[in-house]
Design brief:
CATH architecture of the largest domain: Up-down Bundle
Order of helices and strands: HHHHHHHHHHHHHH
Number of strands: 0
Structural class: mainly alpha
Number of domains: 2
Largest sheet: none
Number of helices: 14
Oligomer: single chain
CATH topology of the largest domain: Growth Hormone, Chain: A
CATH class of the largest domain: Mainly Alpha
Shape: globular
């Protein structure tokens, strides 16, 4: 879709890239505001306002006739998406106890793993056949459906709202959450794993190309990663959670470490077949299916009365890590020197194992 926008609006590739950057920043920053607001006013109104913002942003993007206005409406879209994402986690945390919350997070993760695959498969076809604005029309229709469904079906789950909200109370809430060691470790683990996925997506195509594969072939092989993420989520929901979310997340982190070490080893040994990259990525996707849902449920459960604030901080950290990690790796030359990229992934994975080891030791003490 981005090349079509570039061609139709007659702008540079850098300007078009700002559409994604602006969206990611508003998605991250927006969650920092939506969390505390939901602790004060409730989850339902924040979610409904978010769905409304996303709908308005999508309609604005349809009628935008310049890149500047399109970027503005993408920021509005990102703000709306931030509210919906943060409230989705908060709703689950409010409605379920910890293990069941992790199980429901896995269910959500299974749906979310299918959505990107469908968007890749059909988004390009839609944009190519009807223009890039048709994708924005579809987004507007979907967000309007969420708005209507939320208005009629969603029930408020925050039954003990904060009495007031101001700068001091918000900063106090964030300080309370951030000084919680267990919340920090759970959130660090989640952010590192999300960052690793975005990083793989940022530089792995170059290694496939060096091994003689096209970008299209890379897309086909890399699509196995979200498939195994789906499998990991399914098994996590049915089996791993029963062992305890700490043990499940720790097992996932160890598998994730094995996967990125395997990526480094296979390429260092000179293997060039696509499976030498695809199979470790499948293991990584499977491990993420176990880690992400459990780490989110774990972080939310220890946030206590500041669950909305915790949800916002967790989501913002995931988006920030996902956006920054890949850029840093590429800036360090990871797109040219694969050992640099693989080494960064191993470091991030080790950090995840370290953080989860602290949580796991607390559990068995």
């Amino acid at each position: 879709m981005l090349p079509l926008i570039k061609s139709q609006l007659g702008v540079s590739g850098e300007a078009v890239q700002q559409l994604l950057t602006a969206y990611m920043i508003s998605l991250a920053v927006g969650q920092l505001f939506c969390g505390p607001l939901s602790d004060r006013f409730g989850r339902r109104p924040v979610m409904l306002i978010g769905a409304f913002f996303f709908t308005v942003g999508s309609i604005g993007a349809v009628v935008a006739n310049s890149i500047e206005y399109l970027i503005l409406w993408r920021i509005v879209q990102g703000s709306g998406a931030a509210a919906c994402m943060a409230m989705g986690r908060a709703f689950v945390n409010d409605a379920y106890e910890r293990s069941e919350a992790a199980r429901q997070m896995s269910t959500i993760g299974m749906v979310l793993s299918v959505a990107p695959a469908l968007s890749i498969a059909f988004g390009g076809v839609l944009a190519e056949s009807s223009g890039w604005k048709s994708a924005m029309v579809l987004l507007a229709a979907c967000s309007l459906l969420v708005l209507v469904a939320g208005y009629y079906l969603a029930k408020e789950t925050n039954l003990v709202k904060h009495s007031r909200i101001n700068t001091r109370s918000v900063m106090s809430a964030y300080y309370s959450v951030m000084r919680n060691k267990l919340f920090f470790c759970w959130t660090l683990t989640s952010g590192m794993q999300v960052g690793m996925f975005f990083s793989l997506n940022a530089f792995l195509a170059y290694q496939y190309q060096r091994n003689g594969y096209s970008f299209a072939e890379f897309g086909l092989w890399f699509s196995l990663t979200p498939l195994f993420y789906l499998i990991g989520n399914s098994l996590n929901r049915k089996w791993f959670i029963a062992k305890g979310i700490e043990r499940a997340a720790m097992s996932g982190c160890l598998l994730s470490l094995v996967s990125v070490v395997a990526i480094f080893v296979t390429q260092a040994m000179g293997f060039t077949h696509a499976l030498s990259l695809a199979l470790p990525c499948c293991l990584f996707g499977f491990a993420n299916g176990i880690i992400i849902a459990n780490s989110m449920a774990g972080a939310m459960s220890v946030a206590g009365r500041h669950a909305g604030t915790g949800s916002g901080l967790l989501g913002a950290w995931q988006m920030a890590t996902g956006g920054i990690a890949g850029a840093i790796i590429v800036a360090l030359g990871g797109d040219e020197v694969f050992s640099v990229a693989a080494g960064a992934l191993i470091l991030m994975s080790v950090i995840s194992v370290w953080a989860m080891s602290i949580v796991y030791r607390r559990r068995i003490e």
